[in-house]
From TrEMBL:
GO terms for cellular component: cytosol. It comes from Raphanus sativus (Radish). The gene is LOC108856512. This is Guanylate kinase 1. Keywords: ATP-binding, Kinase, Nucleotide-binding, Transferase. The keyword Nucleus does not apply. It comes from the Eukaryota. It holds the Pfam family Guanylate_kin. Residues 136-318 form the Guanylate kinase-like domain.
């Protein structure tokens, strides 16, 4: 809880002229203006009652358009407050929603949106849910086939089950005998995956050892929403794409002690045919070279002795023996159903209105946020400032 603070607040008017949009409960749409465009947030998306709609009105042409919406957006509710932030983002606060579902960001001109607009050749906006609590970065782990990535990730998830969650990739390769669909991978057909890639559902994808692999935006969102730190096991091409995105991850490359040891591990795993082993070994040389020299990876781990390598992994993730095995709980704060919203630098001040007003103010601090679409916006700080 914070102290009563002396905020010097710019009281901004309701309406559409200054980037603020606060409307009554009966009027479910909220509109914000950025440059020549109005973004109307409300109703449902293309008739789907489960998905909040976004429409764009261009003042210069007087035309309406419905953009392609990336990421999983909020479900419709009874009204929204919206505030324009820097970097082409709109903060959307859902009225009367649970505290873990009330803070959202609609990215309309962020670097990710601009890149996707170019890539998909159409108008694009992207949702990113605001997640409270410590903003631990997602972890990208790459390395040649057989080096021990999966083994190290399993050890981490077993020791800290509530702290880490695995981003389940999509792949067109066939399942190995112990692999479960939806747990190790989402096993999928090439044409289905290609269509989903074209629909903008993937954060990254790459052709690896002759098959298509990719991380869907949803697979990262699911882990982040559960309050866990997301681990991605992806190849160097995928790591390069993630590095260029706004996911803001930590990048680790795992090296084998020698090519001979790598070959032995691949063979003793016994999951590939001889032809597949040869292909993986050929690709390994190039991957190791790229892993060491591309500048993508901040950390190179040598997996010689497994226990030692695991210890080094925990060290670089800042996990010591005192780390809470089950993560840190974030105190719940419910946002008032009826409220006004004011912006003061990085702080958003949410003041309850209506008969039951207690004059307490909720301060939403955006100073420490990171991440963003694709995926979640992490590190939101909410504090209640008591009226004196
Ligand atoms: N780019 C990308 N690579 C992935 C993804 N999922 C897995 N990979 C990589 O694909 C490669 C082959 O994975 P897999 O077939 O499970 O074989 P393994 O590495 O020998 O266990 C590995 O380098 C993985 O890191 C993904 O979603 N995207
Ligand atoms: N440090 C290590 N020493 C010996 N064997 C290892 C070591 N790390 C992993 N392995 C074994 O090597 C094989 C490949 O490991 P795996 O985790 O499947 O690799 P990857 O996910 O990188 O393809 C597995 O059989 C695993 O038990």
């Amino acid at each position: 809880m914070g102290e009563a603070a002396a905020f010097f607040v710019d009281h901004l008017e309701n309406g559409h002229t200054n980037g603020f949009g606060v409307k009554s409960e009966e009027d479910r749409d909220t509109s914000v203006q950025i440059g020549d465009r109005s973004y109307v947030i409300g109703g449902s998306h293309e008739g789907n009652p489960l998905f909040l709609g976004v429409k764009i009105h261009d003042k210069t042409t007087n035309e309406w358009s419905i953009p392609t919406v990336l990421g999983t957006g909020p479900k419709p509710c009874k009204g929204y407050s919206a505030v324009v932030l820097k970097q082409g983002r709109i903060l959307v606060i859902k009225k009367g929603s649970a505290s873990d579902d009330s803070i959202w960001f609609l990215e309309v001109d962020s670097p990710f949106v601009r890149e996707q607009r170019k890539l998909l050749g159409k108008e694009v906006v992207a949702w990113s849910k605001g997640v409270r609590g410590n903003a631990e970065k997602p972890i990208v782990i790459s390395g040649p086939s057989g080096v021990g990535k999966g083994t190290l990730i399993s050890m981490l998830m077993k020791e800290f089950p509530s702290m880490f969650g695995f981003s389940v990739s999509h792949t067109t390769r066939s399942p190995r005998c112990m692999e479960k669909n939806g747990v190790h991978y989402h096993f999928t057909d090439k044409n289905v995956m290609e269509k989903e890639i074209n629909d903008g559902k993937f954060l990254e994808f790459a052709s690896v050892h002759g098959n298509l692999y990719g991380t869907s935006i949803e697979s990262v969102e699911v882990v982040t929403d559960s309050g866990k730190r997301c681990i991605l096991d992806i190849d160097v091409q995928g790591a390069r794409s993630v590095k260029a995105s706004s996911l803001d991850a930590i990048f680790i490359f795992v090296c084998p002690p020698s090519m001979k040891e790598l070959e032995d591990r691949l063979r003793s795993r016994g999951t590939e045919t001889e032809e597949q082993i040869q292909k993986r070994l050929r690709n390994a040389e190039a991957e190791i070279k790229a892993g060491k020299s591309s500048g993508i990876f901040e950390h190179i781990l040598y997996n010689d002795n497994l226990e030692e390598c695991y210890k080094n992994l925990k060290n670089l993730l800042g996990i010591n023996d005192d780390a809470p095995v089950n993560g840190v709980e974030v105190e719940g704060i419910n946002l008032p159903k009826e409220h006004t919203v004011t912006k003061k630098e990085d702080k958003i001040l949410i003041q309850e209105t209506g008969e039951a007003t207690k004059n307490d103010m909720i301060v939403l601090d955006l100073a420490s946020i990171n991440g963003g679409a694709p995926g979640r916006t992490r590190g939101i700080v909410l504090d209640t400032v008591k009226s004196s």
